Amino acid sequence: MNRSTAPEGPVAFFRERFGVDDRALERTLGAALERQIDAADLFFEYSTNDQVALEEGIVKSGDRHVEQGVGVRVQAGERQGYAHSDEITLESLSLAATTARAISERSAPASAVAVRAAGAPSRDLYPIATDPTDVPALQKVRLLEEIDVYARARDPRVQQVMASILTQQRHVLVADSDGTCVGDTRPLVRLNVQVIAQDASGRRREMGYQGMGGRYDLARLLDPTAWKPLVDEAVRIALLNLEAVACPAGSCDVVLGPGWPGILLHEAIGHGLEGDFNRKKTSAFSDRLGQRVAAPGVTVVDDGTLPGRRGSLNVDDEGTPSQRTVLIEDGVLVGYLQDRLNARLMGMKPTGNGRRESYEHLPMPRMTNTFMLAGRDDPAEIVRSVPRGIYAVSFGGGQVDITSGKFVFSANEAYRIESGRIGAPVKGAMLIGNGPDVLTRVSRIGSDLRLDEGVGTCGKDGQSVPVGVGLPTLRIDGLTVGGTET
Amino acid sequence: MSRALSGRDAVSRALTRALAAGAHSADASLVESDAIEARVRGDEIDFVKQSRQRVLGIRAFVAGPGGLRTALTSTSDLAGDTIDRMTDETVALARATAPDAAAGLPADGFAAEVPELGLCAEQDRHVAVEARIADARRAEAAAREVDPRISNSEGTSVDSSFHRIVYGNTTGFSGEYPSASHSLFSEPLAQEGGARQRDWWMTAARRLDALEDPASVGRRAAERALRRLGARRVPTCEVPVVFEPRVARSLLGHLATCVSGSTVYRGASYLAGRLGESVASELVTVIDDGRLPGALGSRPFDAEGQPTRRTELVARGRLESYLLDSYCARKLGLRSTGSAAGGAGGAPAPAPTNLWLEPGALSPEEIVRRTERGLLVTELIGMGFNPVTGDYSRGAAGLWIEGGRVRFPVEEITIAGQLDEMLAAIDMVGSDLEWLGSMAAPTVRVARMTVAGA
What pTM did the predictor assign? Predict the structure, then answer.
């Protein structure tokens, strides 16, 4: 297969593959500008997604999906016109521009766009040696088979092992009517291991899952020092769940472990601070900039600039460089997450959070890597401080109602805390709270900030994007736990 | 660059090439879609979107010791040379996988005819985006006319999409059919004092003239948002829980996951090995039917070219059938139910077509009247369901019932139980069967669940 990783950059990639040169970009943007509009942009994409999956001891199938296309967007006031096509040709570009500009009825005097091809972004947060989709399938197959054998050898109660390797290489190019033209090449890799264990009686079956990934070389996942601990974790969680007792129901003090429980911030806070909801005043956080929304000591940031992380981006899908944005500083709401449209309409600056699932979608303000900065408390002491409660260390998914602020996130590894000691594991339960006040009830912040393992995917308006979260050990007083035991 | 091939040409080129590259057998599907979409807030257009898309999926099987090796690829580039290259890659990728005795094309025949199911109305093809925007404006206006407390919204979205599905395989079978879908989704906000609540209503159909009136959708959405104002928490308790049709559908969704052959043969479903046993109360009958005329889940043949049909999954509480494609059927020693879903590029897996819970005799008002103290659930959030164990815990909002009457709205609570026990504890089923998309349920009452709150 001859698919070069285009060392000369994404701009050259699209020029060579589809004949998209500066003149074609200028002509298309110029066509959009024949109407009275505020901005226009073009988004080109060429993605390869591979998956190799194992179950029942064998790799039954390999998948490859190649997606290519272009989206043309025109902004006029609050309106956006969007047309996309899976054909990247001059004809389809011109047709899309004509369609998208139809949201503005008024014509404008002719104006020319001069595209300044910046080429690749000025930094590379995810340099890799090998395009992960160029790694031979056989190498992935061998690893999955090894994982299967290893997992089954861990414990005779392991009944089923499902493992998969996902690799993605995404080339994007953004050209804006302000002259910006920038591309990005984004690798993404992920390893998933799911284990089903059955107890000796054969009556009880439970599942354990662990995954890891990021924007780095696949070689990192193929290394036994990376995948063996991951398989150990999946097996440990499945076996632990075989012993889990019913979870208590009702309000109690909750200690969240470090890392992935940061999904709390993503659901409770992050979505509510996205610019679109705040411009429309449909968020529970609308008009609350400058107000206290968390306990003193709580600082929450969104940072798209962390090297190699799943949620990181050199530039967002509108060509704006990603950045570190402080959302809550010492308990006070200080920032929103913005894309270009909402920043313009709110008189704010874009924060590099304009993201889209693919060329088929309009960008929206989205999170990148969202986490709380470390505090000063000793994590072990935080657990000891709780007379009766729940210690939750791993979570599945979550969801939020932006408007009412109510959010949930479901624990898949949790324990009772009795007299300051970690007790029996409890069955997975939903935790529910109110975004605008949950962080006001934070009473201890650990010194052990950790980021998640790189498996988060965020859904909004039907669009999925990879994200990261992080948290230090945290104590929250009075959160509702949705167990069955009253 | 070379020109894109159309429909059947692309499919047959891939199949011929696969055999030439050494495949034992292969199938291919092509989905062509043209869509318009828009969202309106108040009177203002939020966005207008137009798209055209084609995806070709190729699945190749290569003979190996004791079975076939499988690989799948898809591409949105339909140039002839790309199809050739992708097909060669598919066959090469298949050689890297393990032989599987259950893999392969269906061996028990394909759809003999392609019945006309009314999946697309010719006159709808000329629908202008302006007409759909006018629909959305009517829904927004109707919502705001309901009450002065409705003065904002997340907007009303409309879309119309037209598809052509072409499927062929190397046994010589090929078929194609057109389909369409249209929808309108309205999500207003109710505001009072500092409190904000949202809710939604929607309509979706294969034909424009089968959509609910936009103004009626807007009004229903507004009324739902208004009744949530003033919501509070309730103390933790065990009470009967009444599910509105819209949320009762989610119970059907969980059941569908657990009767899908792919979770069953992996032992990842609590219903594995339960065929013929009681899995729900006698009031529960669940049917899947892929051939209801004009319905959103209907299709003349499934993603493997097998005829769709009507399958009784649960009859008066007894588990009668799983949902199966040919692979899962072979794994379980059963026959396919024509339930392969997947579209172009996805591995076929069993999924429901049109799925519903048969209605009972009680009106929803009667079910509330017969509930002394309990919860009427109107919205669920979070994915708190574990198909391996049936453990269930989700965030909920709804209305509190006291003395057989709805008293006040509630929120920030959870409901929890175990699906096996919940389905067995269904003691009332309403007469108000309500379709939303391709799934329908009436009001359902579960005799007892844990509600966690303050």
Answer: 0.94
